[in-house]
Amino acid sequence: MIKNQWYVVMSSKEVKEGKLIGVTRFGEKLAIWRDAEGKVHCISDICCHRGASISHGKLLENGERVMCPFHGFEYDSTGRVRVIPSNGRNSPVPENFKVKAYKTYELADFIWLWYGDDEPTQNPSYFDDIDDSLPYSEFSEVWNVHYSRAIENQLDPIHVPFVHYNTIGRGNRTVADGPIVRWINDTMFYFYVFNRVDDGTPARKPEEMQISEMSKVYLEFKFPNIWQNHIDEKLRVTAAFVPIDEEHTKIYIRFYVGFTKIKALNKLIATLGMPFNKKVLHQDKAVVETQIPKKTELRMSENLINGDLPILEYRKKREQLKSANNK
Ligand code: FES
Ligand SMILES: [Fe+2]
């Protein structure tokens, strides 16, 4: 995990108003809830008394407090215990009766958590070119891999004709010219892929590619965990790779459609298109879950090739961000 980052951790619709749920993210058990005003809160799900799951308790006072089910300790959203019932409601609570609280933010129908020791200096940002009114359909599932493997799969242009030979990879375009990686800022890059049928000429290096050859289709990765495929101005696939623990990742795929002026029709197209996206994702899952080790590092015994350039760039930057933030 890279520290001091805003991570997408859930889809907004998964946390209904007045609801308290338990999830695992970053290898930690978390209790998440939405109060009566719609604000999302998150504290550790391990009670500081004797370790019961707080999320199995209930919300009090319109979600201003949450009560552990075991002995009724009441927590506020900063993680402090405010009431120890067996001591009497008005007895003072020692300061060390607290659990960790996480900063939350809601944006683009996602819940974001700040993971790190420093204070956030800015709010999270989603993709600039997707505004909130663009209709989408969403699908999510858990993969049995570290999130680095799930991300790298979406940065990999050379698996497409093999893994997706009968879907998005039809046409046997096995040779990958380029690919070209362009850093847009310190934590975000675009990459362009040029797959073609093997005509006997070797793959061209990125520096041999003309800028004019760049297609309008490009992919984008934004640290620490979101990705976008710009298929068209009006058609996007996005993914959020949510770290559950070292060996599990929840992937949220969205299919954004803006083809027509009618929102409901766009939504319908997005919904009808999701089974295809799901099929493509399952083709990936079947292979990616076989990869060993389950997690990647910059320095590991893999033999990367030209077509892996976006993956290499990802690994380098991840390492750089880790050494700058994981003190
Ligand atoms: S374990 Fe939570 S109140 Fe006792
Ligand atoms: Fe794929």
Overview of the molecule:
The chain has 327 residues and is of the alpha+beta class. It is 17% helix and 34% strand. The protein has two domains: 5-115, Rieske [2Fe-2S] iron-sulphur domain (Rieske Iron-sulfur Protein), CATH 2.102.10.10; 136-325, Naphthalene 1,2-dioxygenase Alpha Subunit, Chain A, domain 1, CATH 3.90.380.10. The chain has helices spanning 147-154, 160-163, 263-288, 309-325; strands spanning 5-11, 20-25, 28-34, 40-44, 58-60, 65-67, 74-76, 81-83, 101-102, 104-107, 110-115, 136-143, 175-185, 188-196, 218-222, 226-232, 235-245, 248-257. The strands form four sheets. A seven-stranded antiparallel sheet has the order 12-18-17-16-15-14-13. Strands 2-3-4-9 form a four-stranded antiparallel sheet, with no helix packed on it. A hairpin with a 3-residue loop joins strand 15 (218-222) and strand 16 (226-232). Fe (ii) ion is lined by residues 153, 159, 163-164, 284.
Average pLDDT, rounded to a whole number, is 96
- Total domain count: 2
CATH class of the largest domain: Alpha Beta
Q: What is the fold named in CATH at topology level of the largest domain?
A: Naphthalene 1,2-dioxygenase Alpha Subunit, Chain A, domain 1
Radius of gyration: 22 Å
Uncertain spans: none
Could you give the topology of this structure?
Elements: E1 5-11, E2 20-25, E3 28-34, E4 40-44, E5 58-60, E6 65-67, E7 74-76, E8 81-83, E9 101-102, E10 104-107, E11 110-115, E12 136-143, H1 147-154, H2 160-163, E13 175-185, E14 188-196, E15 218-222, E16 226-232, E17 235-245, E18 248-257, H3 263-288, H4 309-325
Antiparallel strand pairs: 1-11, 2-3, 3-4, 4-9, 5-6, 6-7, 7-8, 10-11, 12-18, 13-14, 14-15, 15-16, 16-17, 17-18
The structure holds FE2/S2 (inorganic) cluster and fe (ii) ion (FE2).
